[in-house]
Amino acid sequence: MARIIDGKMISQQIKDECKEEVAVLKEQGKSICLAVVQVGADPASSIYVNNKKKACAYIGIESLSYELPEETTQEELLSLVEKLNQQKDVNGILVQLPLPAHIDEDKVIQAISPLKDVDGFHPASVGAMCIGQPGFLSCTPAGIIQLLKRSDVEIAGKECVVIGRSNIVGKPMALLLLRENGTVTVCHSKTQNLKEVAKRADILIAAIGKPRMINHEYIKEGAVVIDVGIHRENGKMCGDVDFADVLDHVSAITPVPGGVGPMTIAMLMRNCVESAKR
Ligand code: GUN
Fold this sequence. Notes:
Oligomer: single chain
Helix content: 40-55%
Bound molecules: guanine
Radius of gyration: 19 Å
CATH topology of the largest domain: Rossmann fold
Structural class: alpha/beta
């Protein structure tokens, strides 16, 4: 029987740990504040941003909300980021992506002080992670490591296959698995014999962005499968993995929803607490 890795429960544990730490910090007279910046009103982004603000409220982190109009210029956004960099009572800065097409996302990410980069997207944060130096870890891959560890899945020495090479998930995921002493393979759209490569995995991370693409033909009997995809099909949520098709072949799997998704916000909260402690 496959074990279902309960991301909702594990993310709740992490949020409760953060809540306790925030209470201690507040007793020491420290306050914690996350600035949340959204440009435009993309409905999906609005949902994510609201969930982040709700998590802040639950944990006791103050959130400063900046809802800027779609036509905000790059210069205006960069000067807001600069102001927040200077503001001593702001511990974390989150600029929700994607940004409107007329704004250069890389420029904005690079404008955020690495000391407040709670998303872990700044090149300095990515570089620090790459060489094992202190810095903020990007939230989704760090959340997946927590899911594995807190479900007693051994990573060291295991064949880990990551399908997807995005800057936000695939690449940092590969680095974090390597840091945990996994033997890591990264696959992408040009990979030949994807099924054969995926089948080597003891731990398979699916971050492709194609609904239910990964069926049992990609999976070694008894593998642990982590599904990073989030899609809506006919009003129903699904991931990159065909959950029903693989269930009898895996030893453990994350569901969609309720797997990786809630972990991203929990790790963002973790990064905010770390920032306030530093
Ligand atoms: N858009 C989708 N996911 C994320 C995230 O984790 N952080 C930010 N800033 N934007 C996103």
